[in-house]
Design a protein that fits this description.
heterodimer; A: 746 residues; alpha+beta; 5-stranded mixed beta sheet; 4-stranded antiparallel beta sheet; globular; B: 744 residues; 7-stranded mixed beta sheet; 29 strands; 25% strand
Chain lengths: 746, 744
């Protein structure tokens, strides 16, 4: 009997490929070396065709770790994007390779380096010309939807995607610069097929129909049966794979600044992209999108050695983070919890060996295989060099110098025709490549001892500081009696540790751009040009915030003191919650994908990092956005690692039991719709307080329960909820929630 | 209503000393087009024009054929119609009609004929002295005049050669700008006694019908130049007493059409009846044109480093919103870049800029510029000592086509440095007096390659307003800059695979009006202007344009063409006024007189490069104690005036102007010898390859086979008149020696 195989319905992406394949026919042009780029999903998501991004970045585009060129110039993992070609990534780097066949035989090749030479802080990684597309804008403000192809705010993603613009034959694919897409095609893509592809893009480019990239669709797609199963605890809730900021945003929660080691690769890459983009604006010194603009604020305005140290830097980070969130509002500033690295650093300070300090991996340097290939092509390196460079792949290094040592390449600076010392072409090529690989790395950074003993703070040291019970000792004296506070003193030492000393300093110009005597982190005036500055200060700010929790109401003397260049005062800095963020070691979210009332909530293991389990101070289960309108009261029991928990699961002498919260609702006394969810706050001038029907949040301290689980030998956690009536029986249709999260604090 | 325009906007006829002629090429670097004696284009199978193979009259190497400038009328549906189409007899359009009874009205009409009117004149002898760039920004009242002793206005007007306008149509297809051919017009011609060659005509007009198209052919003069004195040449541009038969002037057209005119009347019986008559109306073409007569194009297939098209393209792009996608106000669309009034244009010019996201097409916009220097090795010896080729386009060459055509791919850009190097040695705005590049590589600080193009500039001669060297136009530099950055497309690997002309887009015959405008000018010289080839630096002045590729016409009175203001002001007769527009002869008057003198001297130049800032020092210092630095052998425009050429496909290199010495006497000889010079043509030849073997004790040639060899080589040189060509380094008859300051 012939088996009748039911043909699987193609996914929308598969259909997109079919449409484009059919239109293109057999004759596939080069498409800048990418050929049939739509066939490779990852490539399609990132590819640029002569500068035109085929699929515009989505609002939360986190796929930047791919090797296909992530669109923005000099991106983390990709070499120069096609758009700017070598001009951005090889800038000022390979000056010595001779132009092919030049008549003189000694023709030096010249790199394009607009404005880089004069910009003191423009160390070569940042000498790229501006890619005007890298920073999102609100669009040109008039006319021409194609515009500059700039990812403008107001239009649909498909309207900004080169593929759709090209298929529609809009500028620049209107023949004025490029012919309409597809090129050399067998057929034109029909209007309805273009509309299909556009809809697919606007739906978030789902790769398969159950693609997590389209959460809205997924929610709608969850089957009724599944919704019931989820609400009844017969099906596990999944831990979110999205960036934490997206989960907290959906839960209308605060932004979370987390310890840098708990950021995902995608989260870090997004931060790197933002910085890369900011570096590109460095030649526009007044442009607040330029990284140097922010670096210079510290140079000119920073407050140290008195009570404004903490408030001023809190605002500094706040405004910098706001700028980063213009680029992508999922970005938050990670913090570098120094004491977590104290053990690792035991042998790296109070020693005469320089720059052997250990810093968080995200800020280190390393080389990829692609990077080695590119270095090989410069012609600067011998085969042996290349083979040594290859051996470094897979490792990370705490400083550029350590990298060079590992690769057996001499760190050398040289004077060219009596000018200042600068890196030799070899060093420059390597440093360019390291910068390209990691925008958080910085060449003038030699973490470790500064000759004499630097005190590296361990957990006890931090606890001592947190135990200080008055502001002046903790945060510094007022203007008329100024002195350093305890936290700032530790902070000073960590600046010196992070910057370190240049073992190979030459000449007498201690401020030499490529050959300074000390790392820039040690220098008050240029410190903020090192990206690690921001993680360092995020930690300072976190410790203040933690101290505020421990010592509520203890504040600097002059709350009205202004904090230029901003128009805010010390008082405005006292609550980080008002500034919209909180500190968290790590956070795991379970979006609740059911519209039914929760009877039981069961979830898969959260995949909590072991380092988080080992070092956190406090754990907390949060239940997000519990509906309030017209619901009967109930209690929610919280368990850890108790799969299948029911109303009958014991709460006494049960080590899995975390605690219980009770709702306090009421019946509806208004007219129809009165108890519905309130309208979303969309008016900028709506100054009214929290709506009384706004869903509310519960928090349950789980610190001890987590410790019990760890003591039991559990190495991961999951959360269960059981909803019961006030009489302890199962209770349906009483608890409607948006999400549950498991949170860890330092 | 349709808009009618004449194309090309600027046509080029060329002198010749026979009645035979061919048609001007309408593509960059294309050979001229063969035609019949009515100027009807000969077409080969497949529709391509038949190309001219012989530039001289059959059997007489001293007779150069003339080149006719062909004009056609195109109709455009409206302002947004990019291409338009040529009108044909019988085509119906809505025409304007103005009659005494109806007033101005619109009628449906059928094209019947075109009345073409052209007015050629030569004003060179009546104009100011040419003094390099002095005058480029206006003449001072003390600027010397040519023939300065002639100051009485009426007498000075006699220095203008003005045969008056001529009108032709299918009904009356021939006319001549000859003496006596314009009854009722106060013609002025040079005295009949001028020597060596009197001037009796500036050319002819022909109208022909081809495939129902009604076309005009303008033919120029005979190449006659003469002096009222005993002929001698003392200057490369200003020689009092001399006249030549170069000319230029406006081309206008009136379309004649038939239309049905209906009216009601009463018949004999008193009934009201409607009568329809066929009547003829006329309408003036909305956008007229200009014709310029130049000297022969001896190297028709090799473009100049900057063509006149590239000059006017650059000027139109930057001043007239000609290509908003390339240069305009963001977002560079048509709607936002359509200034209408003068004020609009001023605002637009303030705001417009090059589009940083314009991706030039390699073979359309980049390669034509880079390819030319390599072609000049056929016309000039760049390396007198080693004979090297600094512009090699082959693998590994400085201009390696394969390497330079590859855009970045997958973020890899192995040719980035190579492109940057080429871009960095291009002379930039402000570097017109700089011979060599500053540091192009920090790694090799002492390396100062010569800036490109290494060609003489608008004024390498005097130190007043010097522009010692040529630089590319702003637009060329922008396009090359984009390319150097990696922002370009190799169209042939993307969408041109099936197109045999993909790598040579200029080889496609021009079809649209703008293609014809550009193609025609592609064969004219766009710099340096000292004073220039067909036209001088006046073309850089935006005031003379009414729009892209169009000169502004002005009105004038018969027999009263304008004079320099210093003369005209004496009796209030019309003075030249650029702001009002141009009249016949107003473009070529800036060129040297007679043209042969400057033409002969424009081979190569010795340029004093002691100071970059020439204007800032005392320019007339004598006995300057400083050792002067000299750049030797800087060519002018190898494709317009070749120097060293191949005598035949496999032949030796010879001086092109062999037999005409490099001195004032040679300039005078050129007045008649121009017709004997050879043309440079791409010649393909079958050759035998053989070896000599000793067979039976005797030397015998053994043929191994045949192969084809091709080269740009000299054809149709009249050795009988000029003597055999001289090879470099042998003999004094050629251009072995060249005095340093011949052009001063």
């Amino acid at each position: 009997m012939a088996k009748k195989k039911k043909k699987k319905q193609p996914s929308r992406y598969e259909r997109v490929v079919q449409i484009l394949d059919a239109a293109q026919g057999d004759n596939i042009p080069d498409y800048q070396g990418n050929r049939a780029f739509w066939k490779d999903y990852d490539l399609l998501m990132h590819v640029r065709l002569y500068g035109q991004r085929m699929i515009a970045p989505g609002p939360h585009d986190h796929d930047h770790g791919h090797d296909h060129g992530s669109g923005s110039c000099c991106s983390t993992t990709a070499p120069a994007s096609e758009d700017d070609g070598g001009s951005c990534c090889s800038s000022s780097s390979t000056e010595s390779s001779a132009a092919p066949g030049s008549s003189a035989g000694s023709a030096g090749a010249l790199a394009d380096q607009p404005g880089s030479a004069t910009n003191r802080v423009d160390l070569n990684p940042h000498a790229a010309p501006v890619d005007p597309f890298c920073w999102p804008t609100g669009g040109p403000g008039k006319g021409d939807p194609g515009g500059n192809g700039s990812p403008s705010g107001g239009t649909k993603r498909s309207d900004r995607s080169g593929l759709i613009i090209g298929l529609r034959g809009q500028y620049p694919f209107d023949g004025s610069n490029f012919p309409p897409l597809l090129w050399n095609a067998a057929h034109k893509v029909s209007e309805s097929d273009i509309a299909f592809i556009a809809d697919w893009i606007d739906a978030g480019c789902p790769r398969a129909e159950d693609d997590a990239a389209a959460p809205e669709k997924v929610r709608a797609a969850v089957k009724v049966n599944d919704m019931l199963a989820l609400a009844r605890g017969d099906m596990l809730h999944k831990v979110s794979a999205q960036p934490v900021s997206q989960d907290t945003k959906k839960e209308k929660g605060l932004y979370q600044r987390r310890e840098v080691s708990t950021y995902t690769r995608a989260e870090l890459d997004r931060l790197r992209e933002a910085l890369e983009c900011m570096y590109q604006f460095n030649k526009f010194w007044q442009d607040e999108r330029s990284f140097d603009f922010w670096g210079r604020i510290h140079t000119n305005s920073c407050q140290h050695g008195w009570e404004q140290f903490l408030p001023w830097h809190r605002l500094y980070l706040y405004f910098f983070e706001q700028t980063l969130q213009d680029f992508d509002d999922d970005i938050t500033l990670p913090y570098w919890s120094w004491s977590d690295y104290a053990d690792a650093n035991k042998g790296t300070y109070q020693t005469t060996i320089l720059d052997i300090g250990i810093i968080p991996e995200a800020y280190r340097c390393w080389l990829t295989n692609d990077g080695v290939d590119r270095l090989a092509k410069t012609g600067l390196f011998s085969n042996k060099d290349i083979s040594n460079l290859k051996k470094t792949v897979g490792n990370t290094y705490n400083s550029g110098l350590r990298f060079l040592k590992a690769a057996k390449i001499d760190y050398e600076v040289e004077q060219v025709s009596g000018g200042p010392y600068e890196w030799t072409p070899k060093v420059r090529a390597v440093y360019d490549e390291l910068s390209l690989t990691n925008a958080l790395w910085f060449p003038n950074r030699w973490p470790g001892s500064v000759g004499s003993a630097t005190h590296y703070p361990n957990k006890t040291d931090i606890d001592v500081i947190l135990a200080v019970n008055n502001w002046a000792d903790f945060g510094g004296g007022p203007e008329d009696d100024h002195h350093f506070g305890a936290l700032e003193e530790v902070h000073n030492g960590m600046h010196n540790f992070a910057g370190g000393k240049n073992a190979f300093f030459k000449g007498d110009d201690t401020q030499n751009e490529e050959n300074p005597k000390y790392g820039w982190m040690t220098d008050n005036r240029v410190t903020a040009f090192d990206p690690i500055f921001w993680a360092h200060h995020s930690n300072v700010d976190r410790l203040w915030a933690r101290w505020q929790e421990l010592h509520p109401g203890v504040n600097p003397e002059d709350l009205d003191g202004a904090l230029p260049p901003w128009s805010l005062t010390v008082k405005d800095t006292l609550s980080i919650k008002k500034l919209g963020y909180e500190y968290m070691r790590d956070s795991y979210h379970y979006p609740v994908e059911t519209n039914n009332g929760i009877l039981r909530f069961d979830a898969e293991l959260a995949g909590v990092r072991s380092s988080v389990l080992d070092t956190h101070r406090k754990a907390e289960v949060r239940i997000h956005r519990v509906r309030r309108g017209n619901l009967t009261n109930a209690s929610i029991r919280v368990f850890l690692n108790q799969p299948g928990a029911t109303a009958d699961t014991p709460v006494v002498d049960n080590e899995h039991y975390v605690g219980q919260v009770s709702t306090f609702h009421g019946t509806c006394y208004g007219g129809p719709g009165h108890c519905d969810l309130p309208l979303p706050r969309s008016r900028g001038f709506d100054k009214r307080r929290l709506h009384h029907h706004e869903p509310r949040n519960f928090r349950v301290d789980a610190t001890e329960a987590v410790q019990r689980m760890l003591a039991k030998g559990e190495d991961d956690l999951c959360v269960q909820l059981v909803v019961v009536d006030i009489d302890g029986t199962p209770k349906d249709d009483a608890v409607y929630i948006d999400g549950v999260s498991l949170n860890f604090f330092d | 209503m349709a808009i009618f325009k004449i194309h090309p906007g600027i046509g080029i006829a060329r002198l010749g000393n026979t009645d035979e002629f061919y048609l001007a090429p309408e593509q960059l670097g294309a050979l001229p087009i063969e035609c019949d004696d009515q100027g009807r284009e000969k077409t080969a199978k497949g529709g391509e024009p038949v190309r001219v193979q012989n530039f001289k009259e059959s059997g007489d190497l001293s007779k150069i054929k003339r080149q006719g400038a062909r004009f056609r009328v195109f109709a455009y549906d409206d302002e947004n119609d990019p291409d338009g189409r040529e009108i044909k007899i019988g085509d119906t359009f809505t025409f304007e009609l103005e009659t005494t009874t109806t007033g101005r009205t619109l009628v449906e009409g059928r094209v019947k004929d075109v009345q073409w009117t052209v007015h050629l004149a030569n004003k060179k002898s009546s104009w100011y002295d040419y003094q390099e760039t002095d005058g480029m920004h206006g003449y001072s009242s003390s600027h010397p005049l040519r023939n300065p002793t002639v100051t009485q206005p009426d007498l000075r007007r006699q220095l203008i050669t003005d045969p008056g306008p001529q009108t032709v149509s299918l009904a009356s297809p021939n006319a001549s700008f000859a003496k006596g051919e314009n009854p009722g017009y106060p013609q002025t011609f040079p005295p009949e006694t001028i020597l060596p060659n009197p001037i009796t005509t500036l050319g002819d007009l022909i109208v022909n019908e081809q495939n129902k198209n009604i076309r005009l052919i303008v033919l120029g003069g005979q190449g006659n130049s003469g002096s009222t004195n005993t002929p001698y040449i003392s200057s490369y541009t200003n020689n009092d007493g001399w006249f030549d038969d170069i000319s230029d002037g406006p081309v206008t057209a009136v379309i004649e059409y038939d239309y049905d005119f209906s009216y009601t009347t009463q018949d004999e019986d008193g009934n009201v009846v409607e009568v329809t008559e066929c009547r003829t109306g006329t309408m003036e073409v909305n956008v007229p044109a200009w014709v310029v007569v130049g000297y022969p194009r001896y190297v028709p297939e090799i473009p100049d480093m900057i063509t006149l098209d590239e000059v006017i393209y650059d000027l139109s792009v930057r001043n007239f919103a000609y290509e908003p996608r390339l240069f305009g106000v963001p977002p560079y669309d048509k709607a936002g870049n359509s200034p209408k009034t003068e004020e609009d244009f001023r605002l637009w010019r303030n705001e417009a800029q090059y589009n940083p996201d314009y991706y030039p097409k390699f073979y359309k916009e980049i390669w034509p510029i880079l390819l030319r220097p390599d072609l000049y090795r056929n016309l000039f010896d760049f390396d007198f000592f080693a004979g090297g080729d600094p512009h090699n386009t082959g693998t590994g060459g400085n201009l390696d086509e394969e390497a330079l055509s590859m855009p970045p791919m997958h973020g890899e850009d192995p040719n980035f440095q190579h492109r940057q190097f080429i871009y960095k040695i291009l002379r930039q705005p402000g570097q017109e007096n700089l011979y060599t590049a500053e540091v192009v590589s920090r790694a090799i600080p002492d390396y100062h390659p010569r800036l490109m193009p290494m060609l003489a500039g608008n004024n390498p001669i005097s130190n007043t307003s010097p522009e010692k060297f040529l630089r590319l136009t702003d637009t060329q530099l922008f396009l090359l800059g984009q390319w150097a950055r990696g922002k370009f497309v190799n169209e042939c690997i993307e969408w041109g695979e099936d197109d045999p002309n993909c790598k040579t887009p200029w080889k496609r015959p021009a079809v649209t009006g703008s293609q014809i405008d550009r193609g025609v000018l592609g064969n004219m010289l766009g710099g340096a202007f000292c004073p220039g080839g067909e036209l001088g630096w006046i073309v850089l002045n935006t005031a003379i344009y009414s729009g892209p590729y169009r000169f502004r016409h002005t009105t004038y009175t018969a027999g009263a063409l304008s004079l320099p203001a210093v003369i005209a002001d004496q009796d209030g007769s019309p003075a030249a006024n650029l702001a009002a527009g141009l009249e016949p002869g107003d473009l070529t008057k800036y060129i040297g007189i007679p043209w042969q003198a400057d033409f002969h001297e424009c081979s190569y130049q010795t340029i004093n490069i002691t100071y970059e800032g020439w204007n800032k020092i005392y320019p007339d210092s004598t006995g300057d104690p400083v050792q002067q630095e000299i750049a030797d052998n800087i060519p002018w425009w190898p494709a317009h005036r070749p120097t060293v050429v191949l005598a035949s496909v496999q032949g030796p290199q010879v001086y092109w102007a062999s037999g005409i010495p490099d001195n004032n006497a040679g300039d005078l000889e050129m007045v008649t010898a121009w017709k004997d010079l050879g043309f440079i043509k791409y010649v393909t030849k079958e050759v035998e390859s053989s070896i000599v073997e000793k067979i039976d004790g005797k030397c015998k040639k053994k043929v191994l086979g045949t192969s084809t060899v091709s080269a740009y080589s000299q054809v149709e040189r009249n050795d009988a008149a000029l003597g055999p060509p001289v090879r470099p380094g042998s003999g004094i008859l050629g251009e072995v020696t060249k005095s340093a300051d011949r052009r001063q």
